[in-house]
Amino acid sequence: MSTATETIEELANREYKHGFITDVEQELIPRGLSEDVVRLISSKKNEPQWLLDWRLQAYRVWLTMKEPTWGNVKFDKIDYQDMIYYAAPKPKKQLSSMDEVDPEIRATFEKLGIPLHEQKIMSGVAVDAVFDSVSVATTFKEKLADIGVIFCSFSEAVHNHPELIKKYLGTVVPYTDNFYATLNSAVFSDGSFAYIPKGVRCPMELSTYFRINAQNTGQFERTLIVAEEGAYVSYLEGCTAPMRDENQLHAAVVELVALDNATIKYSTVQNWYPGDKNGKGGIYNFVTKRGLCAGTASKITWTQVETGSAITWKYPGCILKGDNSIGEFYSVATTNNWQQADTGTKMIHIGKNTKSTIVSKGISAGQGQNTYRGLVRIAKGATGAHNYSQCDSLLIGDKCGAHTFPYLEIRNTSATVEHEASTSKIGEDQIFYCRQRGLSTEDAVNMIVSGFCKDVFRQLPMEFAVEAQKLLSVSLEGSVG
Amino acid sequence: MLKVRNLHARVAGREILKGIDLNVKRGEVHAIMGPNGSGKSTLARVLAGHPEYEVTEGEVQFESKDLLDMDPEVRAREGVFLAFQYPVEIAGVNNAYFLKSALNTVRKERGLQELDAMEFLTLVRARMKELDMDESFLNRPVNESFSGGEKKRNEIFQMAVLEPKLCVLDETDSGLDIDALKVVSQGVNMMRSPDRAFVLVTHYQRLLNYIVPDHVHVLSEGRIVRSGGKELALELEDKGYSWLEQPAGAR
Prior knowledge:
Chain A is of the alpha/beta class. Chain A has helices spanning 3-17, 23-27, 35-44, 49-63, 103-112, 116-123, 133-146, 154-160, 162-168, 179-187, 208-213, 428-436, 441-457, 462-475, and strands at 150-153, 190-196, 221-227, 232-238, 249-250, 253-258, 263-270, 284-293, 299-306, 311-314, 317-320, 326-335, 340-349, 355-364, 369-378, 386-395, 401-410, 416-425.
């Protein structure tokens, strides 16, 4: 080991002892990515050797990889040596009242109908004792612990449940998977871990807790959810409130493992900063999400409402390994102004009588470009597999685009695969019809759009669905003149 | 209630209405007849404020207010209703939800309390019964996979629920079989009242057997070339439109 590395490590460890919530500490981490930086991240998090080794392996593979170029998206080349890969969690500046929050953000909160105490938490306004996020979190945790559910940050899990992390990390998305996932494997900052033991039905949506605690998880988030035999969990990721972040690139990885008869529902509402009306700024959201239906009759459902980010590149998929397992993907993706989305799913049928359903709704407005890309693969042994895909696109205005790339690989003749696709335009006539009945143009568009997305919204937990619907109307604001 | 003066309008650069004058009082039923392309439907759409139609000259007063100055939704809230010739489909939005949103918007504008789900259901059930409509209508997406007759009945149903002051029916009778025509006519007759006026745009006299108009106007090439009582419609039935289709000044 080079002396430079030792010095950095030493520094890192010393910093850790003192706690790393200082501005000075941040300056110690150089820009760019190297093996030293990977070691530094690992040591800052006080990780065991095996995890460092895993990160390093990922890093070495990443060096040999090239960025994928097949996506139907355009952006300037990312300079990976110009990024800072580790920033200690800095506490948000505490504000004393909502009056100090950006009026634009406040207005959006209002439109979304987010409860005041959550608005405060998300904006970093000091909250009163009743709604203190720490106490809320603790209450939830205790309640969950009683029934054996583990729900904590990824870093905590590494220390408190190393055997589980060791057993499942990288089993669904290996560190060799793809450019962004491999990068994430090398440098992931933090994320969430959930474990539902055998036969337990998680009694609450893992949501409110998450919403309050998901702040500052960094740009390379890593989530792992394991549902043991017969377990059930519904997990909500993200937040309908507008999320601003200085980091342009977000490369998260989510792995789900469902054992025999287990069910995981994973719902996402993504509302990262999409850039301004001229296409300046905005988040690149390059995410790898995959679920493994490892056991017989296991089931994984992905539901996503993607309204934010300048560029979205994600394909939450299911590997249907267990016989009779079920994979589902319900998606609404909107692109307005200059947003680009290339999103869809992968359904890999391996087990017998496996079943998958894909419902994708793409909405394009402004100059937005929306691509559905989906793979359905039926392996040789997947006798009796069944897939149903439905991809619908809705265009608002005439400068936007919708594209559909369905890929089918069928190696078993007993499989049935159905694909339906449609493209429609919100017509002047539809809007005029609604207006003639007294509705405003905005209400008319909202009504038409939510009708279009109905099949997806009904998959979301009730209150989330209401928020998602409002979010959609906010993100399409001004799309019809 | 409705005063149209020297109304000129065009669509896609082509002048369709070339000076329409029309006076509709409360309680009256006016039939606008005329051959294809005479501007009947254009008149209906211009009254409702369709954005594709441009008014180039003239004025329209509705209840002493400048109608042309209002957005389509404002006209609707003021009490102008257009029964569409081709009702539009809205996938995934159920009829009840659509109508409840519309009704409550209109009620709000009129200073009335918005109806909750139960009150709304009570109201629409009563109207459906009067119009002999099946309740399954409510849960179906707006006009989607409706037959032609069902779409037209749905227009009349919406009209009955929204209770407008001025009802403009754009060729509501076209494409209807005789049974559907009776139902639609019955709906209109039921709604006739001293406070409400109707403008019926129709190509055929047939509708006027069921809805007896107070006034009949014949439109040709963008102008009203003849006005009269209900007997004018019968005369047209007898002679066709051709005897009227000459420049007004030529006769």
